[in-house]
From TrEMBL:
This is ADP-ribose pyrophosphatase YjhB (NUDIX family). Residues 27-161 form the Nudix hydrolase domain. It comes from Actinopolymorpha pittospori. Its cofactor is Mg(2+). InterPro entries: NUDIX_hydrolase-like_dom_sf (IPR015797), NUDIX_hydrolase_CS (IPR020084), NUDIX_hydrolase_dom (IPR000086). CDD domains: NUDIX_Hydrolase (cd02883). Residues 1-29 are annotated as: Disordered. Keywords: Hydrolase. Pfam families: NUDIX. GO terms for molecular function: hydrolase activity.
Length: 174
């Protein structure tokens, strides 16, 4: 920006904005899923109970204030399994829609334990989730543990077979 005399002048400071979100902008909750695969090509899944529903699935959770997506993935892997992990690559960006509104975005990462071997150490409770058990499963065991929701990324796509990042739209019920 130039001043009247032709010299460069700093841009004006931005006007403070309200912390509320305008009605025309969506409020989207970001989170991560972490598919931890061992050097033996086995996927870590955990059995969890939430809202009196018990199922098997990968590690994951929501972004906390002040952290980035990759930081969230590494933190969630450690909180939910006790494992230190190295993120290998982004596998999928999942959009979760409800009644025509985008509500959540999940970033699904392939990760490997670093170092290896490590012992899995599940928390008893994390928020409203109870952790019951864990398994390292092979590709041919996925269907046995996937349950009813075959849309889960790990049930549809073996992590080591995914070569390019996928973007998926999932219509969900609450």
């Amino acid at each position: 920006m130039s001043s009247p005399d032709g010299t460069s002048a700093p841009l004006p400071a931005p006007t403070p904005t309200s912390t509320s979100t305008p009605a025309h902008r969506p409020v989207v909750r970001p989170g991560t899923g972490i598919l931890v695969v061992s050097p033996e090509s086995r996927l870590l899944i955990v059995q969890q109970e939430r809202d009196r529903v018990v199922d098997w699935g990968p590690l994951g959770g929501g972004l906390e204030h002040g952290e980035g997506i990759e930081e969230c993935a590494v933190r969630e892997a450690h909180e939910e399994s006790g494992l230190r992990v190295k993120l290998v690559r982004l596998l999928s960006v999942d959009e979760f829609w409800h009644l025509g509104r985008l509500e959540r975005v999940g970033f699904v990462f392939l990760a490997e334990p670093d170092p290896w071997p490590q012992n899995v150490s599940l928390p008893i409770v994390d928020g409203d989730t109870r952790f019951l058990d864990h398994r390292w499963i092979a590709k041919d065991e996925v269907r046995r543990f996937a349950g009813k929701d075959a849309r889960e990324f790990w049930a549809c796509h073996w992590p080591l077979d995914v070569r390019e990042t996928l973007v998926r739209r999932l219509d969900v019920e609450r």
